[in-house]
Amino acid sequence: DPDQTLSLHPIVYNDEQWLLVARDVSRLMHLQKVRRDFVANVSHELRTPLTVVHGYLDMIEPEDHPELAGIVDEMRRQSHRMTHLVEDLLTLSRLEAQDALAEEETVAMRPLLDTLRREALALSQGRHRILVSDLCNCDLRGSTKELHSAFSNLISNAVRYTPTGGEIEVRYEAETDGGVRFAVRDSGHGIPSQHLARLTERFYRVSTSRSRDSGGTGLGLSIVKHVLALHQSHLEVSSRMGIGSVFSCRFEAERIVPRSEEAVNA
Ligand code: ADP
């Protein structure tokens, strides 16, 4: 049956005897698809009313209604938050529905790292020391758009969870065995070890109040996880309380393209 999905688990007893357990997971897969489609549809339907609310809020001039200024500001803030949430939900549904990248290109890492540095500076607004080091003379095969979103998420977390005066270091460097690593290190609060394994779950938050105040949607690391999986990579996290965290990922040699002469001289 082409609609049937089986999950196969071989159990080896010894050299001669083994057992193959086949589990029919078609219904589970179907339910997952229903959930994904539902979330995607709801998010899509929320876009239009949100645009209308934004439009009307933008028409209110605070100076004409001084008594409403604080309220209108808060309404704008919350409606922006909701827009981000809807956008992240749509991004996540789109990523979840993909088994592989639809198309691959050469991701020019130098301009991408420049963009990430500018974004980090804008977000930090001078509150942190930000270092971006490009220590690898190569680019990556993959999706520029998706990798940009994953790397931005890691950097925006580092900025949001690091107090004023802290340091954020982004490194893109070659590993000794032919792979490359992209790493974001911060000198922030740190994450207690019991939370590390669950960070990429949707809406999982270490400290709910602090995370909500930080302006995130709770979906950032889920998006990162899916983008990395589409590039045969995964997120690695290490953290020490009061010292900071390192979020990094490794790309295998097959994904690496040496930079062309023009790119090196640019
Ligand atoms: P959020 O939008 O809440 O930041 P994420 O999925 O990006 O959602 O991150 C999940 C949780 O992981 C955050 O709520 C926060 O508790 C924790 N976290 C992520 N990055 C960091 C970091 N650099 N330092 C400390 N905690 C972090």
From TrEMBL:
It comes from the Bacteria. It is found in: Cell membrane. It catalyses: ATP + protein L-histidine = ADP + protein N-phospho-L-histidine. The lineage of its organism: Bacteria, Pseudomonadati, Pseudomonadota, Gammaproteobacteria, Lysobacterales. This is Phosphate regulon sensor protein PhoR. The gene is phoR. Coiled coil: none annotated. It comes from Coralloluteibacterium stylophorae. One of its GO terms (cellular component) is plasma membrane. Residues 41-255 form the Histidine kinase domain. Member of the two-component regulatory system PhoR/PhoB involved in the phosphate regulon genes expression. PhoR may function as a membrane-associated protein kinase that phosphorylates PhoB in response to environmental signals. The chain holds residues 173 to 438 of 438 of the full protein. GO terms for molecular function: ATP binding; phosphoprotein phosphatase activity; phosphorelay sensor kinase activity. Keywords: ATP-binding, Cell membrane, Kinase, Membrane, Nucleotide-binding, Phosphate transport, Phosphoprotein, Transferase, Transmembrane, Transmembrane helix, Transport, Two-component regulatory system.
